[in-house]
Amino acid sequence: MSNEAATATTAAEAAPAPDPIAHGLGASLPPADAGAKTEGTFPYAADLWAEGLLWAAVLRSPHAHARIVSIDTSHAREMPGVRAVVTHEDVPGRALHGRGTADRPVFASDVVRHHGEPIAAVAADHPDTARMAAAAVIVEYEVLDPVTDPEQAFEAEPLHPDGNLIRHIPLRHGDPEAAGEVVVEGLYRIGRQDPAPIGAEAGLAVPRPDGGVELYLASTDPHADRDTAAAVYGLAPERVKIVVTGVPGATADREDQGFQLPLGLLALRTGCPVKLTATREESFLGHVHRHPTLLRYRHHADAEGRLVKVEAQILLDAGAYADTSAEALAAAVSFACGPYVVPNAFIEGWAVRTNNPPSGHVRGEGALQVCAAYEAQMDKLAKKLGLDPAELRLRNVMATGDVLPTGQTVTCPAPVAELLQAVRDFPLPPLPKDAPEEEWLLPGGPEGAGEPGAVRRGVGYGLGMVHMLGAEGADEVSTATVKVQDGVATVLCAAVETGQGFTTLARQIVQETLGIDEVHVAPVDTDQPPAGAGCRGRHTWVSGGAVERAAKMVRTQLLQPLAHKFGMSTELLQITDGKITSYDGVLSTTVTEAMDGKELWATAQCRPHPTEPLDEAGQGDAFVGLAFCAIRAVVDVDIELGSVRVVELAVAQDVGRVLNPAQLEARIEAGVTQGVGIALTENLRTPRGLVRHPDLTGYALPTALDAPDIRIVRLVEERDVVAPFGAKAVSAVPVVTSPAAVASAVRAATGRPVNRLPIRPQAAVVTPQ
């Protein structure tokens, strides 16, 4: 053996053993599907295939508002390769659907109410044939004037049998005669944001021998989608099965039901599997968007800057159909004053139908729009009083025990002052060097920037809040089963992994509770009990709680025989790193030995405490829990060109408990970046109700080059005692808060009011005096 070889062998023998992989709650456990997604082998719906596959295409309306005079499908049916053409006449069951309110036709029959509304669907043996056949369907329209201004919807002729007004909430809290020594007013507009889901919206429908159908979809709420599909198809729910395929990220309702439903109709009609992959244009036209909102505010304060009264009018543009607009309006009205103590509040909120594209659930709906407005008001108030904006906010922030304008007492941790102080005291970033190689740091980059002397730096603040889980009496419940055999645990829960990290959390819970390293989470389908929609942090709370309870039941089954044998209670036994030990050290064995080849399993539910609807005065305990965030934004603005560069966003957030540090930080950073897009670039333009540039060229999403430095300066871990693990949702509140903070910083840099999102260049231009 050579000296080199001997040295190598000795070094190898002396090298310390690698640390075991961290697991359980509090560890940065990587996602189980990370490798497959990185390697491109993760199974998305667009990758699915079946023997005898047909291809689908949908004909959509080119008009925002029109009366349908006639539909002629004969030419399409006669085309070679076409197997079926379906319209409203071929819907065997309920003709309407919708996430919150079922008011949206599967296919338009007499009236088209928005650009892109489905008219007919085709199944053919080739995707090109399907698209040509859809184009061959002849529709005669009588074009009508669209109602696109939500303020006009109050006086316009009814656009829908249910009328134009979806919901009105008049919130009354305190003394209407109260007035402050200082008053500021503002009018604000928030644009239409598209959720822009990663990956194509796609699905596969396979007919079953019993006359039912299976749908393979990237559904985020499979049981609700199944029930809707069964009603439309005229089938019992047990004859429709939804299998959830890989979901390539979701910041809203991932799949448009109007996209899903024609698939099953075509599969039932043809007796063959049918696949549909939407184009990006179809996605923009079909799925819901964030509600464009008009907000009028009046803030009253005393001479010290303490809020006395807030008055507001909030108008949400729901588009053609109601969807979840009633829920979004409840959030907007309830949080219209923000995380501040306001003794008197009078808020009027409306959601109305128009001929614009449909609006619905998008992360932070309702809360984001009002956050941008009330934070602008706080900046105006600080300026009028000559106070530092952060100091003014600190004088008014709420804490645990304070009362919301809805009359609900804040019982959860509300460390708003601590969050604001953390971002305020964090060191500011250095100014960019005045050198040619640093020109890329200027707004617009080296090719788009003006003179460096025209650049102004601004610092602004945003405080945001969101509710977790459903609200106003929503029955939030989830069911989970945990099985253990041969040292391997399996979790069965219909909670869909949308990128929020539920499957990783479920593994960590079982590892923590049972001391088992190898944990698998089964694929989701509707043969499992319901777990609800994947939004508002509900799977961390409700589904995670169900997994924990089931795992604890299995733990009891595992420990009871040992406890009985040694004459002690199960509470005196603990499981750590796969070993079971007693408090006194008398008992020491492994989980595998204790299992002795048995299979243990348990099923459990988690249901949070009930809530109640808001009453006729906007009062009621409507929310299960709240989460808070503070962000300090630093921006550079070219005041001649109006271009804005976000330099840094410092974030402090109320998280309850950190369950997976790496995953939590990634979710916060993603939410902040999404908010930057809302603040500066994202606006789906719809002149006269027609979607303009429905693609990712015309719709400007922020890229990695647009993402600012994000500094997570404080994570406050004050556990919410009513939440499993004490954890809070983390994704929505940074989305809600960051646009307001960016707008605040632009106001500080320019002195301009900045009352519209996204911020247009002309709003940041300062005219020389």
Explain briefly what this protein structure is.
This protein is of the alpha+beta class and 769 residues long. The strands form seven sheets. A seven-stranded mixed beta sheet has the order 3-7-1-14-11-12-13. It starts with a helix and ends in a 12-residue tail after the last strand.
Radius of gyration from the alpha-carbon trace, in angstroms: 28 Å
Q: Ranges with pLDDT <50 over ≥5 residues? A: 1-21
Number of strand elements: 29
What about the largest sheet?
7 strands, mixed
What's the overall geometry? Answer: globular
Query: Termini, distance in Å?
Result: 85 Å
Beta-strand percent range: 25-35%
Mean pLDDT: 89
Q: Total helix count?
A: 17
Structural class: alpha+beta
CATH hierarchy class name of the largest domain? Alpha Beta
**CATH fold label of the largest domain:** Aldehyde Oxidoreductase, domain 4
- Helical content class: 25-40%
- Provide the CATH architecture of the largest domain: 2-Layer Sandwich
Number of domains: 3
Sequence of strands across the biggest β-sheet = 3-7-1-14-11-12-13
CATH superfamily of the largest domain: Aldehyde oxidase/xanthine dehydrogenase, molybdopterin binding domain
